[in-house]
Design a protein that fits this description.
With 132 residues, this protein is mainly alpha-helical. It contains six helices and no strands. Helix 1 packs across helix 5, helix 2 runs parallel beside helix 5 and helix 5 packs across helix 6. The protein has two domains: 77 residues; 43 residues.
């Protein structure tokens, strides 16, 4: 997204009004479009018009993608601390806490294993398609 679409992002950003550029980060950080409109002090009808503008839509999508990537990076940074917290809970004197921690560790461990397995299988299928 960054290298390949960097120029496209700049092109779409250059086509925006100052008001649109100001509204995008507010819209991205809001929980709903309505809340974003209120916070950005724009009418919902204005946002509806903007959403018919390909340059605005592209700039909004790029901002949303960057925000999502930043959130994922934060989750990755916190994963070690979360695992340590769960590990500590395994030593709790309260049986229900130990059980809940064990279930969470096993559940998420299995999900992670499944995701890795699916990734590997997909990569193998893609490699076979490239060979053809």
């Amino acid at each position: 997204m960054v290298a390949e679409n960097g120029e496209k992002w700049r092109d779409s950003e250059d086509a925006l009004t100052a008001r649109q550029r100001k509204a995008i980060p507010i819209l991205v950080s809001s929980t709903t479009r309505e809340a974003g409109c209120d916070a950005a002090k724009i009418a919902r009808s204005t946002l509806s018009k903007w959403l018919n503008d390909p340059s605005f839509v592209k700039a909004l999508e790029n901002a949303e993608a960057r925000a999502y990537c930043a959130s994922l990076a934060r989750v990755q940074r916190l994963a070690g601390s979360a695992a340590e917290a769960l590990e500590g809970l395994l030593r709790s004197e309260v049986e229900s806490i130990r059980l809940r921690a064990a279930v969470e560790i096993l559940t998420h461990g299995l999900k992670a294993r499944d995701a890795i397995e699916i990734d590997e299988r997909l990569a193998a299928l893609e490699a076979r398609l490239v060979e053809r």
